[in-house]
Each structure stands twice: as structure tokens, then as C-alpha cells.
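Protocol step 4 of 5: obtain the predicted structure for the target chain.
Materials: sequence only (see below). No template structures provided, no constraints applied. The aim of this step is simply to have a reference model before the mutagenesis design in step 5. Sequence pasted as it appears in the construct record:
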Amino acid sequence: MGFEEMTSYDQAAWRQSLKVLHEAPRQTLVPKKLRERASSAASWVAGRASELPGAESAREIVERAFEGTLALTFQPALRSTRPGSIVKRYSKNNPDLETYEQIRALPLEERDAMLPPKFGYTLGSAGQGAVTALAVTGAEVASTVTAGTTAAVAIGAVAADSVASMAMMGRTVGVVASRYGYDVRLPDEELFAMGVLSLGVAGSLGAKTQALAALSRLTQQMMRKATWKKMNEHLLVQAIGKVYQMLGLRLTQKKLAQTVPLVGIGLNAALSASLTERTFRRAQAVYRLRTLSETYGIDPQEWMSGSPASSSAGDDSREEAVVDVMAVLDAERNPPTDP
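Step 4 output (C-alpha cells):
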């Protein structure tokens, strides 16, 4: 079996999914002038952060609280889709369908039809971004506590915005995964969803390539099944915890450059909406490719077909951390030994 055995619909879906995953990052939702303002604001933060009242203590408090808050928001959001309701929706056209395994036996076209429109998730993210920006806009960050927004308020608002963004993206990935028949409540599927999230937030072409390559390797392992049977649940949970931490703090830094004062409510709303829309599109593309790979026995390494060469992709991802879920899992399975 392979690409030649696919239906015309599946072939078109395969090509479209690869196009989504290999296309250059889009900037259409944020006008050039606003992006320039965001860049200037980020530079301003880097230069003045240490001068702001309470900056260091606020950052330390926020970073410590963020890790715990992330597990209480993103994970429930990821798992918020109820298997019973998903199966019930499918059973309207398939009365005998009762499990996720049976959903994965359905044609891709039928599963595509069950995917909800992304507009609702994008609109929700825009509203969340606008509300959070109110805490850090409308007043300049001041050098004194009484003259304007303090660093503690600004950084706290950014952290809250990051947590909310992670929750929205968790919900987005969870919804997409469930519609294609994958239960993100299972440890191995949750780890895979972490890789999808890393791909979703990747802002450069090189970072996307790295994240997709990691997902490709992870999918190969999952398709073999025998390898996964040897992994115990405790190990996967440890790996998932590390990936949460890596994704969370990286997103906080990204959102800091987006929501600092002077950037504006409209800009943060657009950026939040863009982030969720991008995560939705890439998650759909990944789960479609995974579905077709499992259905037709295709090596997930084929996902990298048409990707940029590593020599050209690496330059634009040096400063963007990408979570390689396979690397994290391997590190947990084979911890370094003391000499």
C-alpha cells in the first residue's frame, strides 16, 4: 500500500497537509506597522526590564507559579473533549460505532467532516488577548509605582495571558485529535499532542521543520506499537511533565514581546487569534497525515518530503526553542550516568 492506493480525496488531503506544514510562516493577521511596534516594544523591554520596580521579584514569582498553573489549565483543556460525546456524534451516521478505535477505521473524508470550524476558537483567542492587554496598556510602564503600570502588574498580566493562550491551544489540539479518533487522555497520545503544540507555536520555517521531524519519529514509534508496549506509564508522565515546562516558559517569553505596554489591545488580540488559528491548521494537517500513514502503511518519514534542507532551515531557528518530544522521551529512558 502507499500513496498510489489512496483515493483521490486522500491524495488531495495528503498534498494539502504537507503544504500547510511546509509553507513559510504567515504574517497576514498583523499589519507591518504593528509588527514593527511589537519589535520595538520587545527591544524596549529587554533594555529597561531591570530598571522597572519589582521586575526581578515579579519574574521569579511568575515563573514559579506559571509551571504549576500550566498543569492546572493546559492539561484539563487538552482533555476537555469528552469521548462519549464524540462517539455519539459519529454514531448518528454509524449506529454501531462505540469506540475511538472504530472512529479510526472510518475514511478520512468522514472524519474531516466532523471537524468543527476554527472560527470559534480563533475568535475566543482574540477576545482573551484583548482582555489581557487591558492590564498592560492604557498607561506607560513607569519608573515609579504611582506613575503608571508597574512591572509586577505587566509581567503578571503577560503570564496570565500565556496560561490562557496555552489553555486555548490545548483545547484546540484536543478537539482536533478527538475528531480523528485519538484519545489525548492516554499518556502516549498526550505526549504526541505536546509535539503537535510545539509545531503549532513554531514561528520560523526551520523550527517547524525540526518540530515536524520530531513528530515523524514519534509517529514511527507509535505505529510499531511493540516499542510503545515496553514503555511504562510512569515514564511517559515524567516526559510529559518536562515537555509542559519547556513549552510553558518558552511561550511566556514569546508573549512578553507581544503584550508589553505600548503594543496595544488590538495587536495582542490579533496575535492571540493568529497563534490559535495556526495551531488549529497545523494540528489538523498532522492528524490527517497520521491517519493516512496508518491507513495506507506509509512511513511517516514521508512527511518530510518537500521540507527545506537542514542547512537552510537551521539559520532561522537558532533562537527559537523547539521541543523535541522524542529527545525528551529518550532522555527519560536513558538518563545520563555519573562518570
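Step 4 remarks: DSSP finds 15 helices and no strands in the chain. The first helix runs from residue 8 to 22.
Proceed to step 5.
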